[in-house]
Amino acid sequence: MTDIKFVRAETCSPGHAAGAASAPGRTDLRWDIIELLFFAYRDFVGDADEVLEAFGFGRAHHRVMHFVHRYPGLTVADLLEVLRITKQSLGRVLKQLLDEEYIVQRAGHLDRRQRLLFATAKGEALVGKLASLQTDRITRAFGGFDETEQGAVARFLRAMIDRDDPDKVLAQLLDDNVTTTKD
Fold first, then answer.
1. Residue 116: beta bridge partners?
2. Alpha carbon distance 72, 52 (integer Å)
3. Residue 134 pLDDT more than 50?
């Protein structure tokens, strides 16, 4: 097993690996926020990873289940757009979720070629369990925050998302959040 030594970037000489990773001429890099986002993501998805592993699922399964549950009738094409993955990548994951009856697929009402996806009761129970774990982590993190501070966190996260993204689900999510934060 390889030993990993952690060296803070500011203690490295310019030619050292950690210093060399900096963009030339940039002194404003936000290493603090970058690393906090890495670790927050690791722990946020880690709670769900343990549950998913027991089912033989991974993070890809979680993402598919999440969006199918949240947006019943989502088309396969829209799901590909949301996840920004290829058909081939989605195929294996979706097949397993369909075969194990976490998701069902139905033809579209107007266009029978469309494949609309819906979570089954079994799928909804799994998504609910995962969302509960993640909600508990969010609730703990918000423990000492007032409503204004919680709103600032939500605004920060929305601001991190590319606004020119043509994704329909993302547009709906951003519109819904704008509406709920105004109330």
1. 75, 106
2. 21
3. yes
Tokens matching residue 159: 């601001």
* HSE-CB of 19 using CA atoms within 13 angstroms: 7
Mean pLDDT of the chain: 84
Cα dihedral sign for 77, 81, 87, 90?
negative
* Total residues belonging to the chain: 183
The secondary element (H helix, E strand) that includes residue 119 is strand 115-119
H-type alpha helices, 105-167: 121-141, 147-159
Q: Cβ of 173: how many Cβ atoms within 10 Å?
A: 16
The average pLDDT across 54-70 equals 95
**What percent of the chain lies above the pLDDT cut of 70?**
76
Q: Please list, in sequence order, all residues whose beta carbon lies within 8 angstroms of the beta carbon of residue 94, skipping any fewer than 6 positions away.
A: 64, 76, 103, 117
Residue 65 has which token pair? 């289940």
- The values of phi and psi at residue 142, to 5°, are -80, 0
